Description:
By secondary structure, this protein is an alpha/beta fold.
Amino acid sequence: MAQVGFVGLGVTGAPMAGHIARSGHRVVVHNRTAAKSLAWVAINGHRAAPTPAEAAEGCDLVALCVGNDDDVREVVLGPHGVLAALAPGTILVDHTTASAGLAREIGGACTERGVGFVDAPVSGGQSGAQSGQLTVMCGADDDDVFERAATVLAAYSQTCVRLGPVGSGQLTKMVNQICIAGIVEGLAEGIAFAQRAGLDVDQVVEVIGKGAAQSWQMDHRASTMAAGEFDFGFAVEWMRKDLGICLDEAERNGARLPVAALVDQFYKHVSARGGDRWDTSSLIDLLQRP
Length: 290
């Protein structure tokens, strides 16, 4: 049993922190909106702290799941950030989907204080967080740091793998989002084509889902795509943030991402229709309502 701090209680972070609590660890939570921390404590017990630093005091490990690079800098390096409160030998884990450059920046700051660091973005969304079946992509400079962190992360992961030094987790998450962007657009085009061809979409998906076209997106989003239902899931504005990170990294390393760049522009059009909070499967709306 360890004392674990958790900062960021959004739709993904709150259930992750809940799994840690149920696995037997002592948990201290913090959220920028204090009401969310108090609501989490009302359901899960344990304790809330008014600042990130106070959530980190006395902890063996602190995990973050916040919004973007600037949010991570604030809760880690800011005047009330967690790093100032962490003792040498403790571990900081960042589950935020952020840039690899930020991961290296935070990793360097942790090293100066003798704190272990793991960049550990996740895939699986809200449903994966709630079921405790997330895929966790990790970067760590020290295998021992990763192994120690993984014992806590096991509370909400079905897969937790170290892919290389600090930054490798974020780079792998970029690969994940690049692949998803192409898959979702392809599925949207396929479903829209089937509808215009007068086919029974459910029957078509049942057949082709047994072959090479099968994907998580097809299994979980084909029927809602066909119905034009998007008020759930991974929001378009989050995907645009992630694709922006991918495109920035590609600019640095020379990779070519023509499909990802195109899909990002499609999502821009979805946002212009008021779809910032729609699920990423809403790409089909551009085809159903050109």
